[in-house]
Amino acid sequence: MRVTAFARSLPLCLALLAAGCSVSRSGLLELDAAIDGNARDFGTRDANGPDTGALELDGAILADDLGLDGGAMDGGVDAGGDLDAGVCVMTCTSDMTCRGDVCVNCGGPTEVCCAASACVAGAACVIDECRDCGANDEVCCAGGRCETGHRCGPSGTCEFCGGDGDPCCAGDVCGAGFLCDTGTCTACGGDTEPCCANDACESGQVCAAGSCRPCVPGAPASEMCTGCGNDGMRCCMGRSCDVGVVCDAIDVCRNCGGNNERCCAGRGCDDARVCDAVDFCRDCGGNGQRCCAGSTCDAGRFCDLIGFCRDCGGTGEVCCTGRTCESDRACVAGDICVACGALGEPCCVGGACDSTSLSCVSGLCG
Questions:
Q1: How far apart are CA 36 and CA 63, in angstroms?
Q2: Is the per-residue pLDDT at 35 higher than 60?
Q3: Coil, helix or strand for 130?
Q4: What tens digit of pLDDT does each residue of 215-242 get?
Q5: What is the pLDDT of residues 72-86, one digit of tens each?
Q6: By residue range, what is the domain housing residue 50?
Q7: Domain contains 318
Q8: Nearest alpha carbon to residue 255 among 242, 266, 271, 267
Q9: How far is Cα 65 from Cα 15, in angstroms, rounded to an integer?
């Protein structure tokens, strides 16, 4: 019989050679016919030819000489004479794994799976083989992930989702113009079609009792429209309106940005207006009006501590920014503007007094 062994199983080879085996050209070890009298000729005979003369191990051959038990060698030779190659002699690198007694590439598409069933990105382990994943009809990637526009189907493969007639994507999401209805995406927004999200319909359609239908002149205000996007019309799909118009809380487009109109997108208003706390634009900068952006006011006014513009610089009024006042007035202690320049009055800016006969002494004209 021939006992197959790998060349690196040196201790086993030496033991067999000492017992009387020889090495053939093929690298196989052949047992000598007279090993301890325990080898028998198991040559096969049949109608097609004579005894082949092959020698086979019988039961506990060499049990005394080599320490074998039950016909199976301790080094991994089984009762049939084959070497069980289950342990790699060398340590495999991170991109390889042990198969048989050799390191093989792993992790890539069509390669065996690495340790812990790992594969490279874009591949998944299926029955110890890494396969491409994520695209249509491919297996789902780890965590049930698929490419955009796909979902992981019941069979474990990626399938289209979100389009007309497709299953709804994760989270019951469908593409624009489609609505998720009992797990399937259906067209919405057109004539006789279901209303889309937020009761939206296409231009010229209105949502009534859950379905879109053409606008009817003279119908109740809640169902009347002549299109969408302009002031007074229903908001278009996605709650969008034309420039300078904003979609209000009841899905009607309203002019925005002007005084007492709704603030436009981003809380925007026209010039000289500011968006207040309830999202309406208000005139700003004038006396008693809200301060404009940057806490600014018109000339001759200042922004007070509560955000309103007040007149400044006149007699008895607070001093303007930079402690300035109107002409012939001076800003005194307490930031109040008072008359200046006359006899007994505070000196004006630069220590000036009204008459050349007067001079500024200790801040007063005298």
A1: 10
A2: no
A3: strand
A4: 655 444 444 555 677 787 777 767 778 8
A5: 333 333 333 333 334
A6: 2-66
A7: no
A8: 242
A9: 9
